[in-house]
Amino acid sequence: MIDLIHVTKRFGATTAVDDISLSVAQGELCVLVGTSGCGKSTTLRMINRLIEHSDGEIHIDGQQIRAFREETLRRRMGYAIQSTGLFPHWTVARNIGLVPRLLKWPQARIRERVEELMTLLGLPVSEFADKYPRQLSGGQAQRVGVARALAADPDILLMDEPFGALDPITRETLQEELRALQGRLHKTIVFVTHDMDEALRLADRLVVMDQGRIKQQGHPLELLREPADAFVESLLGGEDRGLKEAALLPVSERMLPLSPRLLARERVAHDASLREALSIMLWRHAERLTVVDDEDLPIGELSLRRLVGAKAHE
Ligand SMILES: Nc1ncnc2c1ncn2[C@@H]1O[C@H](COP(=O)(O)OP(=O)(O)OP(=O)(O)O)[C@@H](O)[C@H]1O
Ligand SMILES: [Mg+2]
C-alpha cells in the first residue's frame, strides 16, 4: 500500500531522513519510534506530501505519489497530530467535517458522519458540537483531531503522536478503538509515538529510527527478542524487555490443563497477558493461578515456572 524506496529528505545542510526503505502492506499498522529529531514526523509528512522528498520514490498502491492529485491524497489519507491543528474559530463539528466539506459531500451526510465520529470518540454531540477548540481540554482536542482524520473514511491513516495528551485510560480506549478499526476496516496506518508500551501494543510492524535512518524493523516480538544493536535494545526498554515481551503474550500461551490438584484460589483470565498474570502472582503472593474462560469457568492453570518459560514438567 505504501512503499518508500531509498527516500531521502534534506533541509539545506541537514539530512532529516537518510535513504530509508519501508513497505507497509494494506491493513498493516506500522509504528515509527526513535529519539527526538530522528526523522519520524518528516517521514510521515512526506507520505502525504506536506513535505516533498528530495530523493528516492514514494508509491501509494504502486503509483508514484507525485502523480496523485491533491484532492485524491486528501481523500485517501487522514492525518492526526499531537497539537491537533484545529482551526480556532471553527466549532468542533465544523473542524471534524473539514475534509468531507472540501470533498463536497451533501450537508446531511456530513452532519451524520460528524455525529457518528463524535460518539465513537466519546464526545457527546449535544455537549461538544458547538464548542470551540479553546473551550476543550488537551485530551478532548486530540480526540477531535483524530475524528477529523477519520472523517472522510480514508484508507490510510497517518498519526503523529495523536494520543500524547491523553490520560492512560482514554489512551488505552483509543488504542483499542484504533486496533478494532484497523481489524474491521483494514485501514493502513502509520503511527508515530514516544511511548514504547503503546508502540509494542499497537504495532504489526515496528520501525526503529535513529538519525534519519532505519535501524531495524519487524514484528515487536522479533525486535524484543533479537534487537539489532545496543541502541535498539535500550530504546525497547533494556532490562525491562522481559516484562514488555510478557505484556504481548497471552496467558493461554503458557497455560497447562487443569491438574487433579486443588484449584488455586487466585484467578486470571485466559486472554490476560503473562505480565498481568505475573502481577497477580506478585500481588497475591501466589505461585499458581487458575485460568478461567470468558464465563469465569476454570479451564487450566498457570504456575510461576511455566510463566517464566520453563519447559520441563513440574
Ligand atoms: N522544516 C524544516 N527545516 C529544517 N529542518 C527541519 C525541518 N523539519 C525538520 N527538520 C529537522 O529534521 C530532523 C528530523 O525532524 P523530525 O521532525 O522529522 O523529527 P522527529 O523524529 O519527528 O522528532 P520528534 O520526536 O521530536 O517529533 C531534525 O533534525 C529537525 O531539526
Ligand atoms: Mg515529530
From TrEMBL:
Residues 255-314 form the CBS domain. The keyword Transport applies. Keywords: ATP-binding, CBS domain, Nucleotide-binding, Transport. InterPro entries: AAA+_ATPase, ABC_transporter-like_ATP-bd, ABC_transporter-like_CS, CBS_dom, CBS_dom_sf, P-loop_NTPase. PROSITE patterns: ABC_TRANSPORTER_1 (PS00211), ABC_TRANSPORTER_2 (PS50893), CBS (PS51371). The keyword Magnesium does not apply. Residues 2-236 form the ABC transporter domain. One of its GO terms (molecular function) is ATP binding. It comes from the Bacteria. GO terms for biological process: quaternary ammonium group transport. PANTHER family: GLYCINE BETAINE UPTAKE SYSTEM ATP-BINDING PROTEIN YEHX, OSMOPROTECTANT IMPORT ATP-BINDING PROTEIN OSMV. Belongs to the ABC transporter superfamily. This is Glycine betaine/L-proline transport ATP-binding protein ProV. The gene is proV3.
